[in-house]
Amino acid sequence: MPELPEVESLAEFLKERAVGRTVLAVDVVAVQALKTFDPPVTALGGLTVTGVARHGKFLDLDCDGLHLVVHLARAGWLRWRDDLSGAKPVRPGKGPLAARVRFAPGDDGLAPGFELTEAGTQKRLAVYVTRDPREVPGVAALGPDPLDPSFTVDTLRRIVSGSRMQIKGLLRDQKVVAGIGNAYSDEVLHAARMSPFKIAGTLTDAQVADLHEAVVATLREAVERARGLAAKDLKAEKKSGLRVHNRAGQPCDVCGDTIREVSFSDSALQYCPTCQTGGKPLADRRLSRLLK
Prior knowledge:
Blueprint lengths: L3 H14 L5 E6 L20 E7 L2 E6 L2 E6 L4 E6 L15 E7 L9 E6 L7 E5 L6 H4 L12 H8 L6 H6 L9 H10 L13 H22 L7 H8 L18 E4 L4 E4 L1 H4 L16
Antiparallel strand pairs: 1-6, 2-3, 3-4, 4-8, 5-7, 6-7, 9-10
GO molecular function, one term: zinc ion binding
GO biological process, one term: base-excision repair
Protein name: Formamidopyrimidine-DNA glycosylase
């Protein structure tokens, strides 16, 4: 799933390539992906991209005041094409293509653009056309952005105070903190040397400070690693930079212990017992009590 660092990099990528270009058309292939009807998607035709922003995991293309907002969900991705002039017409079907954004030809005669694709059978990629990105329910409900200067230790202390949520779930809740998903929550908790099952409200002031440092440092490092990369290279960069996520059975880079996994019905988390749980393996939460 694209998370804050990847979406941030995609936004920077599009700033360099899309800003200043005129939208020729937005072709929606997967009808279920389009979540709005007013303004119609056809209203984007003829408008110029004036800016690109990120809201949590949402991409936002400002087209002369009309916004094309995209959420890539779990299995979505953005593929840039230097020339779409010869692309086959899009047709609804069972393939991965969800939408295509075409720009008018430039001085070089090429008509670039990008395609939104989604793998798998669970189609959750979402496209919105709106006058204000805050009209998108998911954007309006976002918690503070961890890369914003306003996200301080005190901000995080207020978030965890009194919470009975496990810290892993709290970090993934977009209404609590924007942009962190399954992968980077694993990475943050490993950096903070904290059990994913620890109850958020039990954190000491020192642990809150350590967690804040881990959140900001982990995300900023990931953003810096991805800076300047083409969209097609971001997935590989994310995978290569992960220390614990999706590395079950491999040695921890910090202590050498074997990275373990806890599986759930639709996801899994990875952690290092020595670094995070005092050397104790975590049992499957469906079968036993959680570590405090």
